[in-house]
Each structure stands twice: as C-alpha cells, then as structure tokens.
Protein 1
Amino acid sequence: MTIDELKREALQLDASKRASLARDLLVSLDDLSEAEVERLWLEEAVRRDEEMASGKVQPIPMDEVFAELRATRK
C-alpha cells in the first residue's frame, strides 16, 4: 500500500477514528531522535518544493488561507 492509498483510506474514517489514528502516529514519533526528526522535515520540505515546481500543486497565498479559516470558524 502506498502512502497516497493509506491517506485515502484514512480520510474515509469518521472524525473520532481519524483523531485516534493521528494521536497514535504522533506518539510513535516520540521515539525519534532530533536528527531523525530534522531529516524527516527536510524530506517533507523537498517533496513539497518538488510538487510546486512540477505544477502538481499550486501554492495558496497565506492571506487566502487565513481568510478561509476565519470564514469557517464563524
């Protein structure tokens, strides 16, 4: 199963099960060394940069993101 397949499956869970899964995944990261966490964040940053450079995803300006968040909180 690929990461994308896993994400699709996980997103089909109800909110409480997704929250439980997220909590379990976060707890599993507690055992990582600081160097490992830094390496993983660097990999994620590179992946996101490559997605934007290839046109796979489009960046959303920060002010639009925050405006949308404010609108959904009302």
Note: The CA atoms of residues 9 and 46 lie 25 Å apart.
Protein 2
Amino acid sequence: MRPPGRLAYLVGFLFAVALLAGGCNAYSSAFKIKKLEEKSRHEALKLNGEDFDLFTEAPRNYSLFVTLTALAPEMGCAPCRQFDSEFKLVASSWGRVAVPGKLYFGTLDFSDGREVFQKLSVTNVPMVLHFPPTEGPDATGSDQYELYDLNRRGLSAEAFVEHVEKAAHVKFQLRRPINFAYYATVAISIFGLLALVKLVAGHLLALVQNRKIWSTAVIGWTVLMCSGHMWNSIRGPPYTGVRDNRPEIVAPGFQNQFVLESQIVGLLYAAAAVMFVALVTKTPGISDPAMQRTAVLGFVFGFIVLYSFLLRFFRLKNGSYPFKLLF
C-alpha cells in the first residue's frame, strides 16, 4: 500500500483546522454565557477591558447593556455617580426575574478600561451602549452597538427600564428599595407637628378667630389680585420693556402688561388701603380733638395723593383717559 501523498496530508490538515475553528467558536459562545452567569450574580457586572472585548464580540445570543463611566473622585463626574446607582437598580431589578442567557448589564470604568475608551473615542460620560444579539430569535442582523440617549431621556431608572424592555424584548418591574430613613423622618415630623398643635392649640384658636388678621389677609389678597398678579401668572410677561433704547415700565394698551407695572400699581393700592383703614379705625380712638382733626386731614390728603398717582399712572397706559385729581 502506498503512503498518502502530500495532497492528502494537506486536505486532512485543512479539514482538521476547520473542525477546530468551528469547535472553538462554539466553545467561545458557551464560555461567554457561563462567564456572564458567574460574574453577574443577578446584578451589574464590573468589567475591565478584556471582559468588554470578550462579551461584546460576535457571536452573541444575548443582549448586553454597558455603561462607560468615570466614578473616581478626581474625575468629578456627578452625572456618572447619579446614573451609576440608577443603572445598578435596573440591573438588580432584572436579576429578580432574570432569564439565563437573555439580558446582562455591565459597568466599565475609565480606570479599568482606558484602551476601550480610546478605541471608541469616548469624550463624554456616562455613556450607555447596547450590544444586541447577533444570533438567535432576537438577532438584529448587525454587529454594531446601539447608543442610549441620556441627554434626551435623562438619568432616571424609570426611563432606562422603558428603553431596555423595548430594545431587549423583555418585561420586568423596577423595584426601588424602601427608604426607611424617609419614612422615619416623615413619621417623626408628623408626631412633632401633632405635639406642637396640642401645645399651642389655645393660642392657635385665638389666632384663627382674630378679626384683624383675617381683615389684613383679605385686604392683602384683594390688592394682590387687583394689581394684575393673576394675569402675570397666566401670561408670563417680561419684567420691563424697551422702547427707543430706553427702559419702559408701562406697556401701552389693555392687552399688555409688565411685571414692574403691576408691582407699582399694587404698592399704590396697598398704600391707599392703609390710609383708608387708618382713617376709619385709628382716628376715632384719638381723644385730643386737635390731634384727631390733624390725623383725619393727613390720612385724607394721603389717600387723595395716592389715588391721584393711580389715575396718573392709568393715563400713562391709556392716554385718552380724561379724569384726574391733583395732577
């Protein structure tokens, strides 16, 4: 029998290489799933550069979300720290209902994967990359990652969960841990408030029944509404205007108004109200007739002057208004 020729050796060698390559690829896919399950432990994986290259390369029959971040204090990245807790919350919530081999989360810090940041030309963090499956029923047909828009969606876990569910074709509920400190603070505040109410209940009742307080509050509310505050709240006008490169405090016409304009009107109304209230409540109690007469004349004159300013201010807004008092 003749020994096999060189061609037969070459064919056999190529066939063995092909089998070896196929076996390596299959092993690599299974190995990645096994490593992911070992490292995840139902939470976000802490990756380094080698892990990133291993788990993100094709083939993939799983979805992987990776956050590129910089958590070191010297980096001074406040959004990184804020989103890191939200990202880990989403990962732990998925870990409660995790389907093996379906979805994983990982975090790659700049200090652990500087070469990855350079390779991807990352200039802003945090950045979230989604590596979809390249094989299986959820395969997208592309080996490229998808970028999660943090600028538009924000840093909240709720918005991120919504995106993950759509991108990875999964459904799970975000579970935030109970904030016992918050509830304890609320409970202590409520008990403290109840104790305070019990201590000052007698004084509080007298305060509520005080006619002067209620009359002052009613007058203040009336002045506030008459000054145009509600119109400002609804329309949101500018504080002042500009005409011929000069500041303008009175907007012409009845359909426009500046904030400063309403504040001036409110002050004039309030001052006129003080004059009138003092006239009817304070002067009757003055025992000296001469002092009483002087007080009456002073309050009346002050009211007339203030009301004259109001009419003058109104004529600035509507030049055709014909009435005035002193000026």
Note: The chain has three domains: 6-168, 180-205, 210-317.
